[in-house]
Amino acid sequence: MERRRVGCRAAGSLLAALALAPASASADYKAFAHTYPHFTQPEGNLELEWWVSAETASLPAAGATTLLEHRVELEYGLTDRWDVSLYQVFQQPAGGSFTYDSVRLETRYQLSRKYELPVDLLGYAELERPADLHAPTELEVKLIATRDFGSFFVQTNWIAEVKLATGDAFGYWLALYAGAGYEFAPSFRLGVEALLDWKVTSLAAGAPSARLLRVGPSLSVAKGRLWAVLTPAFRVAGQGNVDDLGKDLGLRFIVGATL
After folding, report:
1. Which domains can be identified in the chain, with CATH numbers?
2. How would residue 2 be classed by pLDDT, with cut points 50, 70 and 90?
3. Nearest residue to 184 via CA among 222, 146, 224
4. Could you give the CA distance from residue 126 to residue 78 in angstroms, rounded to a whole number?
5. pTM attached to this predicted model
6. pLDDT single digits (tens) 161-178
């Protein structure tokens, strides 16, 4: 528990420092920790991101039911509307060891330019290769639809993921993630994020599954080449026992830096 408290204090300190910084951000950045925006890296731009997630099944027993996940991601802009990302994922279950979880390859493409259509559209695809070589590869696709209304903005992600397997090994995840927020300054945004998940890890009898609705506030700040976002999402409806979808709380912190 002490390591978790130290990590939360470090994240809070970084957010506070960025929020108090007078300079504005030099590029776009995430307003929410779970919901993607209509944004790709500019051509030739390279960004490093570090994600920390805490998925808690039971808040009264957080020390014994929290899964920690770390992602290290590199994003590169192939063109001004198409980018590619490679990231490594590590996990640590409560009481368990810190282990390598998976490697993932992601690409995003702007299906429409900003304000070209009534809703800004972006396509997203990701391949996940688990470290467990017996586990199937997973394919995730998203349709990202967003709209800005001056300083007010709305972002939605329509998500589908399948395990590339047959029989009992087949599994799926359907989700709708959405956020609404307000940009008080180019370097400071506040909002609220809602996460609706329906996940079946496999068709085997007794396999973990979840149907959850979680909601929480979001704070994102930036300065120059550095930005950070924090979203704690609390369960308001549903049930589940999937490790990487915290039943009571899914907290995520991301920090990014343009290289």
Report:
1. 2-258 (2.40.160.40)
2. very low
3. 222
4. 16
5. 0.89
6. 999 999 999 999 999 999
